[in-house]
Amino acid sequence: MMLIQQIKSFNQPAVAMTDHGNMFGAIEFYRKANEAGIKPIIGCEAYMAPGSRFAAKDSGLAHNDYYHLILLARNLTGYQ
User: Fold this and answer.
1) H or E segment at 2?
2) For the chain, how big is the Rg over CA atoms in Å?
3) Cα angle value 64/65/70 (rounded, 5°)
4) Rounded to whole angstroms, what are the CA distances from 8 to 3, 31, 39, 40, 43?
5) Fewer Cβ in 10 A, N or C end of the chain?
6) How far apart are CA 45 and CA 43, in angstroms?
7) Residues 24-56, buried b or exposed e (16+ Cβ, 10 A)?
8) For position 47, what pLDDT does the model report?
9) Apex CA 34: angle with CA 32 and CA 46, to 5°?
10) Residue 54's pLDDT band (boundaries 50, 70, 90)?
């Protein structure tokens, strides 16, 4: 994983990675970072919207009336 190689070359002790709307890359990222001796910080870029996403059609809100929220897991409890 190129990200891990770059972080290693900068002598950084940890690195965070977020996926956009999912966490598909978390396991590979976690394994590769640990193998390189770097602390992985797993995260997700989530969507935050007013009310229910199911009510969006009837609310008068535009399709893109939502915000991005970065969530980072501090430990296993946060990841779960």
Assistant:
1) helix 2-9
2) 16
3) 90
4) 9, 14, 11, 12, 20
5) C
6) 7
7) eebeebeebbeeeebebbbbbebeeeeeeeeeb
8) 85
9) 70
10) low
User: pLDDT confidence of 64, banded at 50, 70, 90?
Assistant: low
pTM of the model: 0.76
Question: What is the distance between the alpha carbons of residues 26 and 58, in angstroms, rounded to a whole number?
Answer: 35
The DSSP code for 53 is G
Kindly indicate the confidence band of residue 1, based on its pLDDT and cuts at 50, 70 and 90.
Answer: confident
The share of the chain scoring above pLDDT 90, in percent, equals: 62
Alpha carbon distance 5, 11 (integer Å): 10
Please give the Cα distance from 46 to 53 (Å, whole number).
13
Record the tokens describing residue 63, joined without a space. 């399709």
Asked if 9 and 37 touch (Cβ cutoff 8 Å), the reply is no
